[in-house]
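Pair request: fold both.
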Amino acid sequence: MVKLYGIPNCDTVKKTLTYFREKNIPVSFHNFKTDGISAEKLEEWFAAAGINKVVNKNSTTYKELDESAKKALENPSTAIPVIQEHTSLVKRPVVEADGKTLLGFKKDEYDKTFL
């Protein structure tokens, strides 16, 4: 089963959910706005993709952070509480399937992984 992490009003998350629906791929959705993100899950994503790919520095949320919070996002151990407080910092969506972690929506990458 594919697990998709994101927020339901995100356009990229919507595009990803549509992709899975059109391909008849069952997906479990985790809304990290309402359900949060565990420290363990963030550590898994950091290990799989690197903190710089997990944190979306182009997001409005990132741009609105003060400099101390931005500095905290450079180190996995100090980044976790900042991300848990501001879940919109995570690059969306995060998709987990068959031991792989995919960040963002890249159709070609999804086609290689799921078809």
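--- second member of the pair ---
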Amino acid sequence: MIMKPNVSLFFPAYNDEHTLPNIVDRSISLLNEIANEYEIIIVNDCSPDNSGKVADVIAASNSKVKVIHHAVNMGYGGALKTGVANSKYEWICMVDGDNEYDVYELKKMLAVRDYYQLIIGFRYKKLYSTKRIFISYIYNQCLRLLFKSPFRDVSTGIRVMHHSIINQINITSNSPFVGAELALKAMLRGIPVGEVGIQTFPRIFGSGSATSLKNIRLTISDVFRVRKEIFSDSYDLPSGRVRHINEEIYKKL
């Protein structure tokens, strides 16, 4: 008999007032089917629309749903970190609140949980503007070069992780780079990371902010800051080891 997982599922919400009811309804339907115990968390990242109010109405009608409100906008990475920190069950799932990814993709992602502790989706058909597809392509190519990354599409807004990862990886980014930081640091620590092909859907309401100039600048800053951290002489050294380079010996190498 296959044991059903206990699942915490959260959504970062920003300008998503129109999509949240549908996403939560589909999530409840999915989790009633595939999960043993579950909770749904909506992280309202100080959204300027009615996302927070809509989330509160949803939570008031279902005890499985709770809402966390940020008093100030903390960015995509901040919303992700809040969702992870407040998830109580063994398997933590995250899906963006704009409905470009369908929560039912989590079913096949959770199906491989016996093999991976972190599962990320890769979009094999992208229904975006040419500009956004180009930016995504350049972004992933740069990460492969800068971090020796093997991932095809490292920053999609849908992922599954085992709760134990929380205490193994220090995630610092507040920009959309946060998903890549999670996957790259997991890979470097030897945590099994899997990729599952997913579909994408057009955003019907509003517009995404991941490729705004502000988020692009923040992402670039986080990319180089995290690269400096990872490739430093002190990052994640084995216990009891330090890396001292004798300058005279180094010159002879």
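Observation on the second member. The radius of gyration is 19 Å.
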